[in-house]
Amino acid sequence: MRKHFLLGLCLAAALPACTPTTSEYTQAEAPKQIHVDYVRLNHVVTFAPGRAELAKGESEKLMSFLGDAQVGSQDHVYLEPANENQLTASRIGVISREMDKVGVGAQTLPAGLEPGDRMKVIVERYVVTPPDCPNWTTPAVGDHSNEVHSNFGCSDASNLARMVADPRDLVVGRTMGPGEGDAAIAGLTRYRQGKPTPLSASGGFGATGGTTGTSATGGVGAGAVSGAGQ
């Protein structure tokens, strides 16, 4: 009886060691998801009292802010003035000309809460973080759990995170504009005017268009097209 009891204890201790490690893994442990974070940077520009000129040293501070923030074409830059009058319009022009020196454009927001001789420069951007890849938690071969491999989808998510031009598109996307149908409209216009583009040997499957029509006397060459039209 004691032998059976000891044998049962040995088998109970050995069973966990036989459990495959893959059965303990779930996709929730390492999700292949792209993280997009919203970042807002602020800089306040000070003007000379009652004038459109920047205060002393403000131009250098503005350039330093834009350089440190590494503002690029994918960033959204805004100017938030203190009020809306003719002096504000002149001040917006001054800041715009300063930022044009480094190729940065900006849009103007409604008046904010800054004092009269100050204007806020706002930089908004979205920062994308790829998933932690590769993930070889489950073995590449010999997995009998019939589950999706832990590394499946990692490369697609990582490549998308690194290739996207504007990470904001991963959050809200862009409004689609009207389709460009210039070529179709031009063809329809010629048809209605009775002036369709004529078929030519050089523009279709003629002497210069196909690989088999290099001879005017054999195959689909210039002679074949000309003879068909006679």
Question: What is the fold named in CATH at topology level of one domain?
Answer: 60s Ribosomal Protein L30, Chain: A
Name of the CATH class of one domain: Alpha Beta
Give the N-terminus to C-terminus distance in angstroms: 108 Å
Q: Which regions are unreliable across 5 or more consecutive residues at pLDDT < 50?
A: 205-230
- Taken as a percent bin, the fraction of beta residues is 5-15%
CA-based gyration radius: 34 Å
Mean pLDDT: 77
Content-based structural category: alpha+beta
Number of strands: 4
In spatial order, strands of the major sheet run 1-4-2-3
Helix content: 25-40%
* Secondary-structure element pattern, one letter each: HEHEHEEHHH
Gross CATH architecture of one domain: 2-Layer Sandwich
CATH homology group of one domain: OmpA-like domain
Broad shape: flat
Biggest sheet architecture: 4 strands, mixed
So how many helices?
Answer: 6
